[in-house]
Design goal:
16% of the residues lie in helices and 41% in strands. It is of the alpha+beta class. It has one helix and eight strands, in the order ββββαββββ. It has one domain: Thiol Ester Dehydrase, Chain A (Roll), CATH 3.10.129. A six-stranded antiparallel beta sheet has the order 1-2-6-7-8-5, covered by helices on one side. It has a two-stranded antiparallel sheet with strand order 3-4. The protein starts with 25 loop residues before the first strand and ends with a strand. The protein is globular and about 40 Å long.
Length: 142
């Protein structure tokens, strides 16, 4: 497989969402079958409640990590416009704890299957110490 040299980009270029609804700060790694993002939980996020990122915020963070991977692929590999995607299904979702305001999380996805505009992937969310705080399997569609 050919090595991918990732360009540093603004996350807003890769996602259809706009602030304050962006739940990732940076695409930190990109490979054709994997991606990783970082996100620092902010008090003004609409998905923060009582000082923690809600379960819905974790789901959105995972989905946006997948969207960042696909957005990067379309914009910087294919040189085409970024497409809007949708969550099709989620399973095996487990939350060990919710990240607090000020905490930085890293979310990694690994593609399980991809065909006909559908992507199935496994995701893990880790805290700054590398401890897994959530995981899921998700399917998204363009």
């Amino acid at each position: 497989m050919e090595e991918v040299v990732m360009e540093k980009v603004s996350i807003e270029e890769l996602l259809p969402q706009a602030r304050p609804f962006i739940m990732v700060d940076e695409l930190t790694e990109y490979e054709p079958e994997e991606a990783e993002t970082s996100f620092t939980v902010r008090e003004d996020s609409p998905l923060v409640c009582d000082g923690v990122l809600s379960t819905g915020g974790l789901v959105e963070n995972i989905a946006q990590t997948s969207a960042a991977r696909i957005g990067y692929y379309y914009k910087y590999v294919l040189r085409q416009p970024v497409k809007v995607g949708f969550i099709g299904a989620m399973r095996s979702f487990q939350v060990k704890r919710h990240p607090r305001v000020g905490e930085t999380i890293r979310t990694r996805i690994h593609v399980i299957a991809e065909a006909f505009g559908m992507v199935a992937f496994a995701a893990t969310v880790h805290d700054a110490d590398g401890v897994q705080i959530a995981r899921a399997e998700m399917k998204t569609a363009e």
